[in-house]
Amino acid sequence: MFRSTPSRRPARLAAIGAAALLTAGIGVATAPAASAATTAPGGWARVAHLSPDTKSVDVQLTALAGGAVVYELDDVAYGAVSPYIPLADGTYVVSMVPSDATDGTQPVVQQSIDIAEGEPLTVAAYGRNADLKTTVFEDDLSAPAAGQARVRVVQASTVEPTVNVDTAQGRPIARDVPAGSATDYAAVPAGSWDLELTGADESATSAVDLPAGSVSTLFVLDDAQGALTAQTITDSATLADMPVGGIHTGGGGTAAATTAPSGAVAAGAGAAAVALGAVALIAVRRHRRGEAGA
């Protein structure tokens, strides 16, 4: 469970320990809305804990200018994604520390982020505890067309270096998605989908529900048995659920220049795809990556 509070005390720093895992299966993760850290115009950031053998962490967002801790999140467990946190324009440092750590220990994971007006970001820690990495994904909460949903895939499993996501009918959604990457969002017909996750050695099945008007991320993760699993996070279920202040849909998020690595192609799925059972392939886009301690 998240407890989110704008911070009024110095930063608490600590080291990462080991061992919280998701149980098998898929679920929709939700969290209470975060308290506003600022009322000034700006953007939004949220934090994702995607390291399967790393215990629950506390997260701090520190303003680079002045060094003030502007926001804290407590007890963020594996597979959890925080609500969006409103932040004024500027550069911030995100630090993750174990929830039971003592004061004064250096963080194992830090990542700088640049907040720009109208743009939402997701900061993710992923990989095994011994080799934690961080990355920043640019989110795009643009509303889909009527009767459609928008979805992307984030590959954070340590079981397989790349994964494919297909419908149960064999129609591809995402191909050869490498660990630590996110695909572009793609428009698909709203509804319930049975999905198959496959890698070189492991496979699993999952069911997702994509309501009309929703924007979602499908996170591919590890389960408690060390197999593939997934969970769906609703980035924005409706326009009313967007971060306070709305999202600039013209040039924000992934509307900025993106490129597709080899092994993936992009296409939108139209209403005719319902009858054919087809879903668009989603192109893997480049993202900014920072190593742990960067």
From TrEMBL:
Signal peptide region: 1-36
Keyword Transmembrane (UniProt): yes
Keywords from the UniProt entry: Membrane, Signal, Transmembrane, Transmembrane helix
PROSITE patterns per the UniProt record, alphabetical: TAT
Keyword NAD: no
InterPro entries attached to this UniProt entry: DUF4397, TAT_signal
Pfam families noted in UniProt: DUF4397
Positions of the DUF4397 domain: 46-165
Origin: domain of life: Bacteria
Segments crossing the lipid bilayer: 264-284
Protein name, per record: DUF4397 domain-containing protein
